[in-house]
Design a protein that fits this description.
alpha/beta, Rossmann fold, seven-stranded mixed β-sheet, about 30% helix, binds NADP nicotinamide-adenine-dinucleotide phosphate
Length: about 350
């Protein structure tokens, strides 16, 4: 069959993205062919197209890490050791893929697809697996956030951020939210019920004071967990306010996003040279931990995915917030919107 994809011949510039038709082979052993209805965008898609993501494929590739749609066909059974697929033809499913989701149809390992929960749209479901698992893995598996702990959540109005907020509430944590713009602060207060004293707009000149104000509003003398994907100059003031037994989880570096549509940006070298550094020996004295992860590692541990989805669904009790939808044909505009730093919730392409 023929499908339409967004393909980039070589990472380095968003201007190299091209829409094209190409053949999709029948699903192989253990695979399902999914007619894609919605594609979830991730900040990593932008970094990948710019060539700033460590896992970016060499040469030509189709970006995209997550999708939702309908199973159209199942391939022949997989190897005897492969578990039977959890889905049938006609099922509404969501899934993750190591690139290749910016497509109107794709083949994916059938056992790694999840059924779309009742009442969710395809856009909701495409907004769920990567960002949900990121929030779940960082907060539950790594940081092991416990009831009553105080957590600093950067980019709280973003795709990962809003799911992290839902998870943290279900864990019984107190959350101090940080965002980059006043519009997002207002959104968190009015739409997500965050107390005004517990959401702040980052200001690099007085970030430490802002954190102290929020901590005093929370009645706390420090953070138990800092969940950070911005890095840059904001990381050290937050780290300095970790309590004994505090955990810093680093899972992104949005501050390193170039201003333009190309990778080349001399400011990045300067930012790299000034990046935060933490002395491991100081961790013992202060009784703190630093952790980091990249979810793409889960692809090498794919057998854990069904269990991870189930654990995520237990703590993530409501559908993700889809902030803006773009038609599939407008993928470059959707990526530009996500890259701008203005987006709230998930950005989704609809086929
Ligand atoms: N390690 C992993 O496995 C993994 C997996 C998924 C996502 N991530 C990371 O998690 C973060 C959130 O991902 P997401 O897909 O949910 O994106 P998102 O939070 O919806 O959007 C990215 C946000 O980054 C913030 N930001 C800070 N500095 C920026 C800059 N210079 N340019 C543009 N935006 C900037 C903006 O929010 P504010 O200004 O409000 O902070 C922006 O809205 C990203 O850094 C991503 O790379 C990591």
């Amino acid at each position: 069959m023929t499908r339409t994809v967004w393909r980039i011949d070589r990472a380095g510039s968003l201007d190299r993205l091209r829409r094209q038709d190409e053949a999709l082979p029948p699903p192989g052993p253990g695979e399902a062919r999914v007619r894609v209805e919605a594609v979830g965008l991730n900040f990593a898609d932008v970094f990948a197209c710019l060539g700033l993501y460590s896992a970016t494929p060499k040469g030509s590739f189709v970006p995209g890490l997550e999708f939702a749609g309908t199973v159209e066909a199942l391939g022949p059974p997989g190897a005897a050791s492969t578990p039977a697929p959890a889905v049938c033809e006609g099922d509404a499913v969501f899934g993750m893929t190591r690139f290749g989701a910016y497509a109107t149809a794709l083949n994916a390992p059938a056992r790694l697809l999840g059924r779309i929960p009742a009442g969710w749209t395809a856009a909701d479901a495409a907004a769920f697996p990567v960002q949900g698992l990121t929030a779940w893995y960082g907060l539950v598996e790594l940081a092991r956030v416990a009831r009553g702990e105080v957590v600093l959540l950067q980019s709280a109005a973003g795709g990962v951020g809003l799911l992290a907020l839902t998870i943290l509430r279900s864990l019984g944590a107190t959350v101090v939210c940080v965002v980059g713009r006043e519009t997002k602060r207002r959104f968190l207060i009015s739409e997500r019920g965050v107390a005004p004293d517990l959401v702040l707009v980052r200001d690099r000149r007085r970030f430490g004071d802002e954190l102290d104000g929020a901590l005093s509003a929370a009645g706390a003398d420090g953070f138990d967990v800092v969940f950070d994907a911005v890095a840059g100059p904001f990381l050290e003031p937050a780290f300095a306010r970790l309590r004994p037994r505090g955990r810093l989880v680093v899972y992104g570096a949005a501050d390193f996003m170039p201003r333009g549509r190309r990778r080349a940006d001399p400011r990045l070298l300067l930012k790299y040279l000034r990046r935060p550094t933490i002395d491991p020996l100081s961790l013992m004295t202060a009784n703190r931990s630093v952790m980091g992860f990249n979810l793409i590692w889960l692809w090498n541990q794919a057998h854990r995915l069904p269990e991870a989805y189930a654990a995520l669904e237990r703590v993530c009790t409501e559908p993700p917030v889809v902030g803006r939808r773009f038609p599939f044909d407008e993928a470059p505009a959707a990526m530009a919107w996500l890259k701008s730093g203005e987006s709230m919730g998930k950005v989704v392409l609809e086929v």
